[in-house]
Amino acid sequence: MWRHLDLNLSDFGIILIVCGLVCIILGLTRRAHAPLTSFFYGLLLLLGGGLMWLVPRINIPQQTLTRLSFLLIGIVFLSIDMINNYKRLKCTVPCQGEFLEVFTYGRKYTGLSYGSAVFRYLVDGISYQQISLDKRFWLGFLESPFLKKFTVGEHYDIYLNPENPRRFTLSRRPHFGLFSFSGGILLVGFLLS
Questions:
Q1: What is the largest distance, in Å, between two alpha-carbon atoms of the chain?
Q2: Residue partners of 92: CB distance under 8 A and separation at least 6
Q3: Which helix (H) or strand (E) holds 138?
Q4: Global pTM?
Q5: Residue 1 has pLDDT above 70, yes or no
């Protein structure tokens, strides 16, 4: 990508370093939607950008660079599901919620779809309509796994975060999805290369 913009690896590394610093500043000043996540991803961007900036300046063999890339990308992919599972562990209070729809990120009917279930529920007399922390991938031409499990308009047990009732999960069990699977494959590639 950077070849078309006439950027070399070091320039792209500097861009990632700047983006990482912005994420860290937003996380520390609590101006991000999820400050802790913003801070964590800022550190990952800083690390990745720093390595991209550093690689051309030192003589690293190609095989070592490939292994390092597998390791870093694998850790990033695994961390996405780990952070989501950490948020889900905080959801301990059972509640009844009405299933409304499936919220899909990106394009709905082609390729790989990614989405969450939308529920409406009451907490201390306040009505909430939120997207669950449970996220799933499915092929766009197939029915969503949420629509297989839930019927629109029916009530189901959900679990709320007592500190933040806007966050809820559909199950207390940990879920590892496509990000964990991809990260695991990349870490196996790191170990085998």
A1: 63
A2: 159, 160, 161, 162, 172
A3: strand 126-139
A4: 0.61
A5: no
